[in-house]
Design goal:
512 residues, Growth Hormone, Chain: A, 68% helix
């Protein structure tokens, strides 16, 4: 089989990194670490706009809060002289900031479909590096507007559009690469832990952007942009796209190909697991699946539409939570820009736990749709409680924010990783791994359309009060759950008919 992939230069230059000097287990860990850091850096560079919103946009009236002991009142930020940054500091400032988010996320969602199409046809490593370099350059360019004293809306929107396009390359690439290295039985918990890179990136990006606000809001973009470029160099040097590229599986016997082993055993036995890994990638040489054909695969459309509503909620928090915290008094006090940015990371910390928990539960019960619906149902009261009681004290705010992050991010994490990987290598297409990036792009691209509308909606409805924003968020969660009701019902019937959850006295399986 001829490969259209080049080998990372560090692997060629350092013979000890190739088999038999290093095991499959070693390279799996290396791939997980590299792709984890790569996508975390993407999200770190995506976070600054949400942190800087409170500096760029309209300021809070000085008499809108009271002073409490040991509490910092509203800071007059030196980066904007306390008056915001034109053109975002006027009465329509929040709506203009919402348009910035729309520009980025619309370009991101459109670019996602094309990124998946190209990702299944060209070298994923080089394509990923191209996306990372572009993301870093245009993130830095946005920050340069501070030193160049630019106040043109078209400049910031143009930069966000291009940045969204190049950022869309990242997700289909990393999911397809991880899917190449891990078989179906190992995707739940492993990818749940791996997918915490999204929240880790948000946390790192929030901390960096908040920390550098005092130095000028431009630094909040320049530093994360430089980090993406640096990580892109590491990806170019060390990332291996497929185990076949460095010789794993070139002489696998028929017995090994048919071997069975548990996920735990497979993580321990190293190179003998090559058989199961290759069994999930036997069709790697097949032609890449078409875009329209991928839409018709079982489960793709329902999960894609579910992610549309789920990601709408997640990205509304991603882009507006620091602004919401800043403009909503906690215990009667408005927090500073920096404090609001730091506090918002608790939502992402909850997201890390939610992604891992959702992956663990979905593996335990072997039901992706049921797990997603459970998390979606529980997130409705969590959001209502956060809106109603989050401002009582810092303790209630942090606890409810963490809980909301855990429940909201659970299904988002599950669908964008293990569900996408499962659907992209399902038996109906002969486990063709060349469909991975396309299916991943369809699911996350559709979700990204919702992600584009969410922040725009928040910018518009926030002018009528935050209750309106939370109403739309809860409504979106309900629609997301409805999308998966039929799939969840099918999973439950299958599990009971097979007696896999509880002992069953049925003599014949239920036909769905």
């Amino acid at each position: 089989m001829q490969s259209n992939r080049s080998v990372a230069p560090a692997i060629d230059l350092i013979p000890n990194l190739k088999p038999p000097h290093q095991t499959l287990k070693f390279h799996r860990i290396l791939v997980l670490l590299i792709t984890f850091v790569a996508y975390a850096s993407f999200h770190a560079s995506r976070k600054p706009p949400s942190i800087v919103k409170s500096v760029l946009g309209p300021t809070i009236p000085a008499n809108s809060s009271t002073v409490l002991p040991n509490t910092t009142l509203i800071e007059s930020d030196s980066t904007s002289n306390g008056t915001g940054w034109a053109p975002f500091n006027g009465p329509d400032g929040t709506q203009l900031l919402g348009k910035l988010d729309l520009a980025f996320l619309s370009a991101y969602s459109i670019g996602m479909y094309f990124a998946g199409h190209f990702g299944d046809r060209i070298d994923l490593r080089l394509f990923l590096v191209f996306g990372m370099m572009g993301s870093g350059i245009f993130t830095i360019l946005f920050g340069l507007g501070y030193w160049l004293d630019l106040h043109f809306l078209w400049f910031f929107i143009s930069v966000q559009i291009v940045c969204g396009l190049v950022q869309s390359i990242g997700w289909p690439c990393v999911v397809a690469i991880v899917g190449n290295w891990f078989g179906r039985a190992r995707r739940g918990l492993i990818m749940g832990i791996w997918n915490s890179h999204t929240s880790v990136g948000n946390i790192v990006g929030s901390i960096i952007a908040s920390w550098f606000l005092d130095c000028g809001w431009g630094w909040s973009f320049v530093v994360p942009g430089a980090i993406v470029i640096f990580v892109g160099i590491l990806v170019f040097s060390f990332l291996v796209v497929n185990p076949r590229d460095i010789g794993f599986g070139n002489s696998v016997s028929e017995t090994e190909l048919n071997a069975e082993a548990s996920p735990v055993e497979n993580m321990e036995i190293g190179d003998s697991e090559v058989s199961l890994l290759l069994d999930d990638n036997l069709s790697d040489s097949m032609a890449a699946i078409g875009f329209l054909k991928a839409w018709t695969l079982p489960g793709v459309a329902p999960f894609a539409v579910c992610l549309f509503f789920s990601k709408l909620v997640v990205y509304t928090f991603l882009y507006w939570l620091p602004f919401y915290i800043r403009h909503t008094a906690v215990a009667g006090v408005h927090l500073s820009h920096k404090t609001a940015g730091f506090l918002s990371t608790l939502f992402d910390i909850g997201g890390v736990c939610g992604g891992i928990l959702a992956g663990f539960i979905s593996d335990l019960i072997d039901a992706r749709a049921v797990t997603s619906v459970m998390f979606l149902l529980l997130s409705v009261p969590a959001l209502l409680l956060y809106r109603a009681y989050g401002s009582i004290s810092t303790v209630t705010n942090t606890c409810l924010m963490f809980l909301s992050g855990l429940l909201v991010n659970g299904p988002y994490s599950l669908i964008t990783t293990e569900v996408a990987a499962d659907l992209g290598t399902q038996s109906s297409i002969g486990r063709n791994s060349r469909a991975l990036a396309t299916v991943t792009a369809i699911i996350d691209g559709t979700g990204s359309v919702g992600a584009a509308l969410g922040p725009l909606m928040a910018g518009y409805f926030s002018s009528f009060g935050w209750n309106s924003v939370f109403f739309v968020l809860v409504l979106s969660i309900c629609f997301a759950g409805l999308c998966l009701v039929r799939l969840a019902y099918t999973e439950i019937k299958e599990k009971f008919s097979e007696g896999r959850w509880f002992s069953s006295t049925q003599t014949s399986p239920t036909v769905v």
